[in-house]
Design brief:
Layout: H1 2-6, H2 16-29, H3 46-64, H4 81-92, H5 97-109, H6 118-134, H7 141-150, H8 157-164, H9 172-205, H10 208-220
Length: 221
Amino acid sequence: MAESQARIETLSKSNFETWKLQMEAVLIKNDRFKYLSEVEPPPEPKEAYDSWKIEDRKTKADLILCIQPSELKLVKNCLTAKDMWEKLESTYQSKGPARKANLLKSLLQLKMETGSDVRDHIRKCFHFIDKLHGLDIVIDEDLTSLILLYSLPANFEAFRVAIESRDELPKLDTLRIKIIDEWQSRTDQSLSKDGWSLCSELRKSIPKSTFQSYNETERNR
């Protein structure tokens, strides 16, 4: 993380758009992007809450280290990374055509990598949609569904075709659940196959004489 931060020009009054793009890239790379939009969870279960707080503090620290000292007064009272991010956006965010174009481009170019977590991917997708909505650009539900479907990797092709072949697209919340269920099913199957492969490899690595000796021992009992 320190190496990535060293390449980012610290935030000032004049470079927010560039800084934000780079900061988002760093946080995505380090699996902390979600803390820019996640609301603080309930205190129970404690283990999950404590884990979230630790990661949120790390995300806040990442942001603070990439902000010029003269600008830190803006975020000194922010309790979470989400609070800090929203404060910076409300202070520096441009609402002009360039900002709208960049957000729309980011949304349309968003592609999920094969093997990555689809829940994080969906979260990123709706992050851009929410930002566009805040700039008075509303993407209707069917178009949002199609954007989401076509952002999935190639191994979701059959799933995508099955959804598109219906008379009507499912509601967005329903589609989101179906995508997550499909991904979870594939993940479970992959883990199961890996487990069987491991057992097979272990069996091959054990000399046949071991099984023969075991069988002879059992017969002699």
